[in-house]
Every structure is written in C-alpha cells, then in structure tokens.
Write a structure and sequence with these properties.
Two copies of one chain form a homodimer. With about 375 residues, the first copy, chain A, is of the alpha/beta class. Chain A folds into two domains: about 130 residues, D-serine dehydratase-like domain (Lyase, Ornithine Decarboxylase, Chain A, domain 1); about 220 residues, TIM Barrel. Helices cover about 30% and strands about 25% of the residues of chain A. The first copy, chain A, is built from twelve helices and 23 strands. In chain A, the strands form five sheets. An eight-stranded parallel beta sheet of chain A has the order 4-11-10-9-8-7-6-5, covered by helices on one side. In chain A, strands 12-13-20-19-16-21 form a six-stranded antiparallel β-barrel. Chain A has a two-stranded antiparallel ribbon with strand order 1-2. In chain A, helix 3 packs parallel to helix 4 and helix 5 runs parallel beside helix 6. The two termini of chain A are about 35 Å apart. The relative contact order of chain A is 0.16. Chains A and B meet through helix 5, strand 12 and helix 12 of A and helix 5, strand 12 and helix 12 of B.
C-alpha cells in the first residue's frame, strides 16, 4: 500500500474517509478576517456553523474574539456550554423553541432575528428574560427577511416589540448570500454596495429613536474581497475559516487558502474510463457541487497528500459523481497511473460547511481529533 | 400556535426538524418485499443503509430476516454488535480496513466484494479468518465492477483468490442502480432483464468449478416492480423500507407507501412570493432532489400532518430550495393561507437514505425515538 496512507509525519494512519484540517491555514484565515474587521472598525462576530466545533472555536477565542454567530438554538446551547456568552442566532426565530430560548437568554447575551410581527407576538407571550433582536432585512437574496423599503412591516415589528420591555432592538441584519453565486468580483461589489446603502438608510431612519442600533452583515465573499464597509458595524462571515471550491470559484480565496481536505481510500480503478473509485460519498461530502472553469459540475478536486498537508490541485483530476459511500474520480493520466488500490488521495471539498456537518469530526495534520456538534 | 405542533395523538411535541417514520407503513413495505422474495425463491438480504438503525432492523428480524447488506465495515460492526451475524458489505473492499475485516470475520459470516485481483492480493496477505467474497459485476451503471464479458479480469480475481483458502467464492453481485434514473417501467425492465441475462451467463460459465455460487442483485426499482427474477438467487434492496419521492417518480412506489416525513417548524412567510420559510435545510434533508412532473427540480412535497401520520401530498406545494438550515416552500394559495408561523408542516423527502443519515435519529408516530448509527 502506498505512502499516501500516512500523513502528518506518520502520526495518523488513515483507513476510512477522514476530514483533515490544516490548522495553520485556518488560523491564518481567522487572523486575516479579524484584522480586516479591526481595520474597518467592525465588530467581528464569526459564524461558527462552519467549524461547528468547540475546539476549533478556541482558535477564535485565542486571538480575542468573544462574539459568535450560529444558525440554531441547539448550536447556541452547544457553544454556550463552552463559555461563549454573546451569541446571535442568525435564523428567523423558531418560536416553538421558546424553552430553549428562555434557558439561553437567562445565561448569555442572546440575539435573535425577527422577520414579522407575528413571530414577535408569539415569542413575547412566553419570554422570561431580556433578549436582543435584529430585524432581518432581505437586500436581494430572496430567502427570508423584510425588504428594505417595507417600512410598514418594520414598524409592525418594532411596535409589537415595544410592548415587551424584555425585547431590545439591536439593529438591522442582512445576509446577502447571493454573492455565493456571483460570477465576478464586480458583481459581488455591486451586491455589497447596494445592500450596505439600503441598510445604512434604514439605520439612519431609525437611529433617532434607537441611537444604539447597528448594521450587521457578512457573507464570506463580501468580507473576503471588499474594502469598503461604510454603513456596516458588524460582520458575521463563517465559511472563510476553511474556505472551499465554491468560494474559490467566486473569487473569495486562492486555492492555497483552502484549509480542509478529505482523505479518501482508493478502492477500485477503471482503466477504460480512467476513473478511480474512492471510499468517500454523499454521506461524507454532502452532495454540494461547484462548477469548474470548463463549465462541468464537480464535487471536489483531487490533491496529493504529503507529509505536511497537501499539494495544490492541478485541477486535472476531479470528483465527477457521488453516491452514498462511493466517489468517482475522473483522473488525469498521471494520477491514474500513480494511484493504487489501498492508497489514500486528498479531495478539496465543494462546500466545507456541509462537509464538516456530514463528517461529525475532523483531524488536524498533527493528528489531533476535533469533535463537531452531533446531530 | 397551530395544531400541527403535535402529532401522534399528543404524544410528541415537535419544536425542531423531526424525522417521522410511519412504522406500520415501513413494516408493510418490508413484508411486501419479503413475501415477493419468498414467492420467487430468492434469498432476502435487505440493505440496512437506509434505516441505519438497530431498532428498525428488528422489524426485519421479527419476520424472520437474518441476512443483511450494509455499505461499510463500520456499519457491519454496528449491526454485528446487535446480533446480525450474516452480513455482506456491498462496496468494493477497502483493504485499508483489514483490522476491522479480521475482527468481523472472526465473529460473523462476512461477505465482501472484489473488483480486481490487486485488492485480492492486498487483502490476502493479512487475512486471518475465512471470508466470503463476491465478484462485483457492472451490468451498465458504470460506477464500479468488472464488465460481464471481461473473463480475463474475473479469472485474475479467481486465480489470485484461489491461492488463499480463507477466501470463499460466493458468486456474482451487481447493483444496477441506473434504474433509479429510469424514465419508465419499461426502461427498468429492460435494464433488469439484460442484467440478469448477463449474470446468469456468468454463473453458468463458472458453476462447473464453483457449484454453489449465486447471483445477487437488488436495486429498489427492479425489486419493487419486476416479476421475473430468473437468473437471480438473492435480492438486496434497501430504500423500499421507507421509499421516497425519487422512487415515486421512477414508478417504484405510490405516494401512500412513503413511510417517512420530516416535520418542520414554519418560521417565516413571504406574501408576495407565496413562500413559506421552514426550519429544515440541507443538514436535515441532504441536498438530494427529485424532478416533479412539470420538469421542475424540488427537494420535497409538503404534506399536512394529522393525528395518525400525514395526508397524501396535493403536489401543489413543494420545497423549492434548501440552504444549510432553511428550506423554502413554494406554497399553494391554500397552504399559504393556512400555515402560520409556529405551525409544523410535513415534508416528504426526495431521498430517504440520505435524510436518515443526516438526521441521526427518527421518531415513530407513537413517539418512540429510534437511534441511527452515528457518524
């Protein structure tokens, strides 16, 4: 069996699909974003749904980050249990989780999102502790939120909230995640600037009555690429800690910034089709894909694992399909000749957030196992 | 908050995305397939990757099933720990897991799959206990396996295996899963019959030297729809226990046979787009999709949850997109008017196997929680 089966200077013997994280790269990505936030005088509240790991979250803590974003109350509980005491749940509040909300609000500074006065009213009835709330604004993604010119709906939320002094208005929050699908930096810039302008207008409009409100934004593409954050007070990017091929394709990162790779055993080869079958499928990667430069959809690029991590991909070999446990690599002649059954190849994933979630754990190159919040 | 928040006669209060299983339907699906196997004198070796649950696996045991198929050695260990002692790992053998293979082969009747003489040779070196093996044949899916006319490769496997008397040749195994994408029952029939003919020829060719070999097949579409299994000795379908919308679309089941539905809280509504935002995204459903009758891709149909389970979908409301935690429903006027924030709606999933894997647990309508093998 090939040398590939061991990475990290013999510290780890890989026998099954294993998600590797280059901790040094991840920490560099965190520092890059943290320093950018400081430079622009922005509150840095990273989204922890990407690593979903209390151990990886310490990498943020170690450089002074103490505010977090999460995507569910369960995830808020998970991080609150490890000393994170200022958390925004960036998801339209699920009023059915009122017990969890009360229990969290008793212990930590919790911020939630409202997109309607109905949710305010339902929550308000049973809320026992003070809680911060943002009004979620839809600046064009068309997923959820109130449109920025819909003052009627915004006022309805504020009027309903005003009846309960436990509800503290924190400001306007947006996630213009349509930047993920942008075709150019210009397009990202255009979405970013339009969104910030709309949010700034809203803040200006309401700050007479609410002088402390802020504007919170923060998809990874805008936060990575933009240099003008006028109008924003807080950023909440998540994916940038690891990046991935989707982010590389929209220009948010170079390939050497991608901090995760899946190590997958080679189980079969097909000479005629120049295909390599790996143990590594949809249950490991999720089924998120990216579009290669030639327009073909793929699920990952193949990289050579080495003693200190992995080489950059030559982009000639890629994962062309995934079923539950199988992955099929369309291999370059070079890779096809080199890779033997029993070797382990690396795969840069299309979408790191979903891959981490599927895997439930990851390993640093030094062989340390990091746990991920369990489903 | 609506009545929807409680299902199963008040036994279960749903507050977060919850995978419901209609145990009665699941058991009926199992009985249907088991009886079909008996009628055709086929060994029934269901694929347990769909429920991935030792508790649900008991439903098979209770009607006398004692042979299983799984998709990884880890899954084999999981079921072996609960008394399953005759397991086929239907995946090209991953030789790196030799320690696990030896430990399993010591305890249970374990069958593995070979697709090349290289894998035989690598495994053979370190194998300590007798093990059964099938040669995986590719009858047209083009994922893995040896093509049925490639006698050279088959003989290479057999010759290599012949050098180790712990390796017991069990026969030929195929998974013609391209039936999943078939557009008609005729197309499924054509794939099924062509595959069986090829496999039967292989068996006839080798049975002089190996009189006990069998032919093992079994994707859910063929097993559900076909009535001629001449040439097959064993079937290994998995998905049929729960079915899903992908199977419904290829004609393998009617909508009333689908035995799982995700209960999802309603968190927001958009009047203009007639969209409902649910708590329920890619981390719950996976991102597998199906194509509706009008050619549009969707991630699930909406169903009304009722006291004894769920109504059939009217197919007018569907999940149009999924992000990590959000699902967006394109709602009929009726559903849009009726569904309120704080309600719970049901969603029939596109691909039940992946959904079960994402969720990590499910609940019967009687409120019993069933665990799923953890990642």
């Amino acid at each position: 069996m090939g040398d590939f089966t061991r990475v990290g200077r013999e510290k780890m013997k890989i026998t099954v699909p294993t998600l590797l994280v280059d901790k040094k790269k991840a920490i560099e990505n965190i520092k890059f974003m943290s320093e950018k936030a400081k430079r622009h005088k922005l509150i840095f509240r990273p989204h922890l749904k990407t690593p979903q790991s209390v151990q990886a979250a310490k990498w943020y803590k170690e450089i002074g980050v103490n505010k977090a974003t999460v995507s569910s109350f369960r995830m808020a509980e998970y991080f609150a249990g490890e000393g994170w005491d200022d958390i925004t749940v960036a998801f339209p509040v699920n009023v059915l989780e009122i017990d969890r909300i009360n229990s969290l609000a008793e212990k930590i500074n919790l911020n939630i999102l409202f997109t309607s006065h109905e949710a305010v009213s339902l929550l308000s009835e049973k809320l026992k502790f003070p809680i911060g709330f943002f009004i979620k604004i839809d600046t064009g993604m068309r997923r959820s939120g109130i449109e920025p010119d819909n003052f009627k709906m915004i006022d309805d939320v504020l009027n309903e909230a005003n009846r309960n002094n436990k509800l503290i208005f924190k400001g306007f929050l947006a996630h213009y995640g349509h930047t993920y699908k942008a075709k150019s930096t210009e397009e990202i810039k255009s979405i970013h600037e339009k969104s910030l302008l709309e949010l700034k207008r809203l803040k200006d409009n309401y700050k007479r009555n609410f002088p402390d409100i802020i504007v919170s934004v923060g998809d990874t593409p805008s936060c990575s690429l933009m240099d003008n954050f006028d109008g924003a007070d807080e950023i909440r990017p998540g994916n940038f800690i690891f990046y991935d091929l989707q982010q590389w394709r929209n220009g948010s990162c170079s390939l050497d910034k991608i901090a995760v790779a899946m190590a997958c055993p080679v189980v079969a080869k097909n000479e005629e089709r120049k295909e390599i079958v790996i143990y590594g499928g949809g249950v490991h990667f999720s089924k998120d894909s990216f579009v290669m430069e030639n327009g073909v959809t793929a699920f990952g690029y193949i990289v050579n694992l080495n003693e200190s991590g992995w080489d950059l991909p030559d982009k000639k070999s890629y994962v062309s399909s995934l079923s539950q446990e199988h992955g099929i690599i369309k291999a370059s002649d070079e890779l096809f000749c080199k890779a033997k059954i029993g070797d382990v190849v690396g795969v840069l994933p299309a979408h790191s957030c979903m891959t981490v979630n599927c895997m439930g754990r990851f390993h640093t190159l030094e062989g340390e196992e990091l746990s991920v919040m369990q489903n």
